[in-house]
Amino acid sequence: MTAIVQSIASAAETEQELTDGFHLVIDALKLNGLNTIYGVPGIPITDFGRMAQAEGIRVLSFRHEQAAGYAASIAGYLTKKPGVCLTVSAPGFLNGLTALAHATTNCFPMILISGSSEREIVDLQQGDYEEMDQLAIAKPLCKAAFRVLHAADIGIAVARAIRAAVSGRPGGVYLDLPAKLFGQVMDAAAGQKSLVKVIDAAPAQHPGPDSIKRALDVLKSAKKPLIILGKGAAYAQADDAIRALVESSGIPFLPMSMAKGLLPDTHPQCAGAARSTVLKDSDVVMLIGARLNWLLSHGKGKSWGDTPKKFIQIDIEPKEMDSNVEIVAPVVGDIGSCVAALLAGIGKDWTKPSADWTGAIARKRDDNIAKMAPRLMNNNSPMDYHGALGVLRTIVAERPDAMLVNEGANTLDLARGIIDMYQPRKRIDVGTWGIMGIGMGYCIAAAVETGKPVLAIEGDSAFGFSGMEIETICRYNLPVCIVVFNNDGIYRGTDVNPSGSADVAPTVFVKGARYDKMMEAFGGIGINATSPDELKRAVNAAMDSGKPTLINAVIDPAAGSESGRIGNLNPQSVLKKKK
Description:
The protein is α/β, with parallel strands linked by helices. Helix 23 links the parallel strand 18 and strand 19.
């Protein structure tokens, strides 16, 4: 009997000295401070999610992998640590891949971890469950992609993924974990030694002194200088240095959408309400964490007027320079280091721009704001965009610490210009791709990562991409207030099917839909608002309560415009319609 007991004890001791792939992945994530996972459970990662939760990692389960991926991507932006998305194999992986590509395009650090089929079956194309060569598919769409076949390599693989995601220009990384890997067993002590804690994952990259001198010389030559702040400047979290540079130089600044709030939009140097004027009339433009892509008309064309331009660009990626137009003063390095160096070079004797330039901007800004004011104060029912956004503008001003999520066509374009922001990284939206579907994933991550209340302003079309995630919001009881601008369709709900058939036009939704009832179905609060006054009361009540709330904001179906403010991107047929 004693021998049996000793044998059992010996077996238990041996068991305690072993670890496996499940626990090594968990330990590697925890060692590097990655304590939240966004994902969807299923084969082969269901048990991994359970174990991670048991080990103290917060695991948030979504209804669709794309929304989970968007949550992970914006978590990376807000924290500067890789957001982690966990998916099943093949179809789940593909769902998450859209968000991974979005993260890479927008320079958000994110790691997509997907379970996968066994290599020997995939390589012979023998038809495994959800068989797919996921690594090969992911590679073109992210910064880096790795597959782990042996438990002893898990630690180094997670370390490489973290470093790839956050170093240099941040982006998405794919980590492929075949099903067999999770069950692989190895000695616990050896497993512990195999883990890697990443040191200085995103080291500072200081600019060359010559590049700083060149940039300052160009700035000194300017008669009408302009600073453009991009979301890269917001991501850098060099807020104090950026503010000091702007104020010390006296140069007007134009914030891109997600850079709004780095300095308040009400700052006297903010040229947001005079965008057209400063783009056309400026002669020297300094880009800080902004790219001359489609959002800035590629730095050329009628938006930029006839005044010759000299561009200074601050970016961590050397290949970004000269991507569309000549950059006469490239400054390569991390934004914090570059701005600090420029600030030191400016010193105390810097000559600020002339009153003629700053005064012209101020007059144009004030004139545009005055023209817009009456439109924002109407109490029409059904609402138009301006009346509804005028209410939300006031609410955001009263609650500057709240997170704002925004997506849609007209809903996005108009909100971006109307709603002022007062603090950095409070406005998060569709970013560089200009896509729809980010809304609910962003809401969840914003609430989880910041602990702040979230206000989401959604077009009805945009909401449809991830609307089922309101169940996730209710399940985790997150302080999210969603306002759906419901105008019965995409762009507007008044289109007519020209063929005369019973089908509605492609851009028309169910008229009079009640999205608020969806929220009620999951235990949240649903409200139908038909006027700006009703909307104001409903949003304030929701933000005060902190309870999951969805407000169906009834917008005039004729209020929108085709594709919002980017209708020019729609190709036009030159053929005459057949009679």
